[in-house]
Design goal:
mainly alpha, Aspartate Aminotransferase, domain 1, two-stranded antiparallel ribbon, 8 helices, 4 strands, 40% helix
Length: 204
């Protein structure tokens, strides 16, 4: 099971489950595989330090400055062999307050849902430690461009769908019009308010 967008979901017994760390935390790599299988070979340990520039840079500069490097880092894993998590990533993950992360993500999700739920075409419940708030809305791509002008950067979750699926199909509709609004632990009520006001301005 691919749980790359639900790090805090409990794995189902007997089902091999993979979750990723880099979608949730300030690391460039790493994930957890829950499985009953035994590997017949030893894995090479990964090395992460050369990939850390865009993670560290975002603490002192705008995220847009490191967009290309972050995207390039994602592409590395398309052909990467299975490796053991690097020592750097392991140690960074040990320093995280996971209870705080869950609570902050829930609070941010609830804030956006209370503010934007009436405009959302999806019926949602509040998950534990949500990856993002999925706002399904008309003219999603145009709204995304307007948000970028306010330095609110919203990714496209399924860019391959836009190339491979028929325009007007349900897959194309979801890829274009579901906006994954950030709710992660770096942000609080002030940032959620900014996102809310920018969205409402776009649709008013």
């Amino acid at each position: 099971m691919d749980n790359s967008q639900h790090f805090f979901a409990e794995p189902v017994s007997g089902v091999d489950t993979l979750c990723t760390c880099r979608k949730y935390f300030g690391v460039t790599d790493g994930g957890y595989l829950y499985t009953d299988a035994r590997l017949s070979q030893e894995m090479e340990k990964d090395v992460s330090y050369e990939r850390m520039e865009f993670v560290l840079g975002r603490y002192e500069c705008d995220a847009s400055k490191f967009y290309e490097k972050a995207s390039s880092n994602n592409k590395i894993f398309e052909n990467e062999d299975l490796k053991e998590m690097s020592l750097l990533t392991q140690n960074l993950l040990k320093g995280i307050d996971y209870d705080f992360v869950i609570k902050r993500r829930i609070k941010n999700f609830e804030y956006l849902h209370n503010a934007l739920g009436k405009t959302n075409k999806l019926e949602l419940t509040v998950p534990i430690g949500a990856f993002m708030y999925p706002l399904y809305i008309e003219n999603g791509m145009q709204i995304k461009k307007k948000l970028a002008s306010d330095k609110i950067y919203i990714p496209t979750l399924w860019p391959d769908v836009l190339e491979n699926c028929k325009q007007g199909s349900i897959e194309d509709d979801y890829a274009q019009n579901i906006l994954p609004l950030p709710v992660d632990q770096r942000y609080g009520t002030e940032e959620m308010k900014k996102i809310k006001e920018a969205i409402l301005k776009c649709i008013s």
